[in-house]
Amino acid sequence: MNCSPGIHGQAGTMHGGCGCNCGCGSKKRTGQEGGKKGELSSSGRFHPVVGVYMITETLMELVLKRYGLNFEAGDCVMLSAGPYAQARPYSIASGIHDDHLRFLIRLVPEGQVTSFLKALKPGDTVFVSAPFGWFHPGVGLDAPFAFVATGTGIAPFLSYCRSYPERAPEYCLYGVRHLHDAWGADELARKTRLMLAVSREKRADVFYGRVTDLIPQIELQTGMHFFLCGLDTMIDEVADRLEARGVPAANIHWEVFFHAQPNQNEANCS
Ligand SMILES: Cc1cc2nc3c(=O)[nH]c(=O)nc-3n(C[C@H](O)[C@H](O)[C@H](O)COP(=O)(O)OP(=O)(O)OC[C@H]3O[C@@H](n4cnc5c(N)ncnc54)[C@H](O)[C@@H]3O)c2cc1C
Question: Do 109 and 155 share a domain, yes or no?
């Protein structure tokens, strides 16, 4: 299940795919995925649940015992009820040295796997695949970089900032609908220059609008890289705006968590 390391999947860069389940090999930004939907995974093990914490009605944090699982910041695992049950990819939000595995999960109405995860209680078990992925934001990069996320797309960036606090991104742009959806914002604000965009709640103390609208405020640096994660439409729009500002396509990296549903044209709601 492991991909070869390194940054690939840059906008406009065609590569042949690596034979794993990361879904790479597509040229189109919206075609990038870190895992195939509905995949049945047989290699992995059961991890006990430490806690399920409801952040809002549709957002939760799942904490599992780590059992020594090794991963890199940005890696995903497939979560499921068992080795042959429906599995979905989730990005690990914990730091690489943390005791537990943490996941930030958006509950999807009638979602097969999220319904299972929501019902978990401490002591239950979740089947966790071997970690995989090609999206390792900022890891080992000898250049300035910034993160842009919508919703649960913040997970790989939380993992990075928890793993490498000494090498922070220049910016972390984070788009949510409501301020209470901005899980991890306080922690990120202590570690990097956090720019929040809240799209459905007007407040005096926070930018009202889409994360896309923050792009003009970024001070670009020579050779700067951008890592985008979350909803596909946000990724397309942000990448277009960055390219319009002169950022080379090869410096823009992304991972799609959710595809916009029909009538869902807001680039901020994963
Ligand atoms: C690489 C990768 C990493 C991911 N990491 C995370 C993560 O860290 N946290 C996280 O919460 N999710 C993450 N996802 C999404 C996750 O894998 C599942 O797709 C998601 O949790 C829904 O699974 P489900 O089985 O509950 O829903 P399903 O049973 O697959 O879908 C149920 C219904 O919900 C609909 N639906 C699907 N997406 C949406 C949407 N965006 N808006 C409205 N309706 C929708 C479906 O069309 C379907 O009708 C990631 C996806 C990828 C590809």
Answer: no
Confirm whether 15 is domain-assigned. no
Nearest atom of ligand 1 to the alpha carbon of 34? 1
Burial of 15-26, coded b for 16+ CB within 10 Å and e otherwise, reads eeeeebbbbbee
Residues 52 and 119 in one domain: yes
Count of the separate structural domains present in the chain? 2
How many whole angstroms from 221 Cα to the centroid of ligand 1?
34
Average pLDDT value for residue range 196-219: 95
Closest CA to 164 of 145, 148, 183, 186: 145
Identify the residue whose tokens are 């792009």: 215
| 167 plus 224 within the same structural domain | yes
CA distances for 93 relative to 30, 60, 73, 253, angstroms: 23, 12, 8, 18
pLDDT digits (tens, 9 = 90+) for 79-115: 999 999 999 999 999 999 999 999 999 999 999 999 9
Atom 28, ligand 1: residue with shortest CA distance: 111
163 and 247 part of one domain = yes
Cα separation, 94 vs 161, in Å, equals 9
Residue among 21, 36, 79, 257 whose CB has most ligand 1 atoms within 8 A, to mutate: 257
CA angle, corner 244, sides to 238 and 245, nearest 5?
95
Q: Which domain holds residue 171?
A: 145-258
Ligand 1 surroundings by CB, under 6 angstroms: 33-35, 76, 88-91, 103-106, 108-114, 152, 155, 255, 257-258, 261
Q: What are phi and psi of 116, to 5 degrees?
A: -65, -45
Q: Residue 132: its pLDDT value, please? A: 96
